[in-house]
Amino acid sequence: MSVTSDSNTPNDQPIVLVMDDEPLIREAAQRFLRRSGYRCVEADGVASALSILRETAVVAAMLDMRLPSGGTGLDVLIDLRRLPEFREIPVLIVTGSFLSDAEVAAIAKQKAFVFFKPEGFSTIVDFLDRLTGRHTGH
């Protein structure tokens, strides 16, 4: 389990969970989020993401859809929505692969949004800012 927290930013900044099995994607997301005024906690899979969610008050989550170790971002999303404190937080499912119609419908049913990895972090963070009411025009 790989869980890290960005310790170089003030504690009053909102925290975003980034779950991705690729360390380079997590690092890039963390750098971009930090520059955009967020703190970041990272998880490399479903178990570590759920552990973080039980211990950390996050304002949003960016979840990779496909994980080689099993489980998906949709699994975390469904578990997250069962917790009262996380029923309404913005969740972005970020994927580099094709999603079936059933997966897209399940994500929409859970009030989450789909982004494809080629869209880039600036687009994702802009959208996240709007969802969290922090739009500052990065």
What does this protein structure show overall?
The protein has 138 residues and is an alpha/beta fold. The chain contains 5 helices and 5 strands; from the N terminus they run E-H-E-H-E-H-E-H-E-H. Strands 2-1-3-4-5 form a 5-stranded parallel β-sheet, sandwiched between helices.
Which descriptors would you attach to this protein?
single chain; 138 residues; five-stranded parallel beta sheet; 5 helices; 17% strand
- What structural class results from the helix and strand content? alpha/beta
Helix coverage percent of residues?
Answer: 25-40%
User: What is the overall number of helices?
Assistant: 5
Most strands sheet: 5 strands, parallel
Mean pLDDT: 85
Approximate strand percentage: 15-25%
Query: End-to-end span in angstroms?
Result: 33 Å
Shape: globular
Q: Cα-atom Rg, whole angstroms?
A: 14 Å
Task: Tell me briefly what this model is.
The protein is α/β, with parallel strands linked by helices and 138 residues long.
Write the layout of secondary structure elements.
Elements: E1 15-19, H1 23-35, E2 39-43, H2 46-55, E3 60-64, H3 73-81, E4 91-95, H4 101-109, E5 113-116, H5 121-132
Parallel strand pairs: 1-2, 1-3, 3-4, 4-5
Helix pairs in contact: 2-3
